[in-house]
Amino acid sequence: MNEFSAIINYIEEHLEDNIDMKKIEQLARVSEYNFQKIFSVLSGLTLGDYIRKRRLSKSLYDLRETDEKIIDIAFKYGYSSSESYSRSFQQLFNISPSKARKEQHELTIFPKLSIRVQIKGGIQMNYLITNKPEMMITGIKESYPNITVGQASIPKFWDRFNESDLFNQVINEKSEHSPNTILGICLPREGEAYDYFIGVYTDEKTTADKLETITLPASDWAVFKAVGKVPEAIHQTYQDIYESFFPSTTYTQKKAPDFESYPLDLNPMSENHITEIWIPIHKNN
Fold first, then answer.
1. Judgement on whether residues 98 and 183 belong to the same structural domain of the protein
2. CA distance to 30, 32, 195, 207, per residue, from 188 (Å)
3. Which of 111, 177, 244, 248 is deepest in the core (most CB within 10 A)?
4. Residue ranges making up the domain that contains 258
5. Which UniProt keywords apply (predicted)?
């Protein structure tokens, strides 16, 4: 929580200039990709959305309390033109910057996030720490530039996959010795970009034209069970992982692929559905 608070303060101090993701990575003590994911789980919005809303909220003060030109305010908060600033302002406040300055409507700003320590009953989390050698996975992937695009695109990716011939092609690649599951894997790239891979455990590289085989590196893993309907149970379990598990243990998440394992023979809308969440970890000294 101390790291999270330091990052919020850093962002607040740099709303009018460049926010250095390498600095945030340093303060967070995890990779940019992992922090973006953790921030989204804990706050309910992406880091980019939070920064945008805080900058626009701060710009409202400048509109009403200073004589600065709208174009200068736009540049001050990182917009390349008054038009792009006005579009974002209108989207957040449902009014144009010029009207907000002239008409003094009552507008609700987006406040700085605050960190509160809440004492509540301990959460009993069932998890397994396990070590696995390299794992070969065959399937298909899509690439996303950031968490925001990925969160919007992944459900559509699954829909297209489930309704296409690729589903049977991928399932036919599954090792007969592996669990009867299909995996959704996040593969971090540089910054907050990542690939999302839908696939199955396999014993050898695929020869199919539309498929590819990847290798997950050997690692220690923390494995959690999300029991209940998809995606609600998964969201709640991720929240418990980042709010309770990591703060209360000596483990840290690696910058490495993490994945969810979905049983092929259970209804994802069932209250008894079990999704396994696999997170690569290392133990702090």
1. no
2. 13, 10, 7, 25
3. 244
4. 127-283
5. DNA-binding, Plasmid, Transcription, Transcription regulation
